[in-house]
Design brief:
The chain is mainly alpha-helical. Helices cover 52% and strands 0% of the residues. It is rod-shaped and about 110 Å long.
Amino acid sequence: MICKNCGSEVSPYITECPYCGNRLRKRAPKLDRHGRVAEREPRRIPTPSLPRLRRGEIPGIRAESHPYLTIALVLGGLVGCLLWRTGAISLVQVAASGGLQHRGWRVLTASFTYNNTGYAFVALTAIAVFGTLLERRHGPLPVLALFLLGGVGGIALATQVQHDSIFLGANGAALALLTAWAIPDLRALARHRDYDGDLLGTAVFAGVIALMPLAAPEASWIAAGVGAAVGLLVGYPLARLRPS
């Protein structure tokens, strides 16, 4: 071993140079049973550990949940549309009209019934797409709340305001789900941050749903407004929650 101060060759077992007194190391080296300097063991880096895999998971990839509630809501709309098309039910039996005091349960049946194929296609597609995205992000309960408040609640308010009109479909629910899903991306856009969604495509979709009463009079303007408002009110708290 060479002293860095005076350049003298010294023993590797000492802590100070005997010629100049320079400090060579903080403590004497450890010796093995044969009297030789023991080699320093490499520092062990803790290996990361993953929690126990759940059923259906692949190592390193979280299992993708199935949007069962969204599927049920879309199937309900398809069944209602099919029943009306085949004549199994009439609009008088399921349409919402005349206020809640006049068979208020119809605000629920009306949310699953369509007498316009284009209206049904747009509304059910929006529910399928944005309901699936929200259900996979936050679970089924927020999707159910948005559907009931935006769709059923929107029709209920519309019947209270316009007693002489009939209302069908879930344009309010579609707008509620769409708006709630878009809130995180809108917040990121306002903060000049990157976002994952397609806000332009979402805005076009929202415009088509909002203007649907022009093509289908049974789609309520009031329900559309209630749906958008509910999406904002529910979407902001959801955006602050971690995905389930």
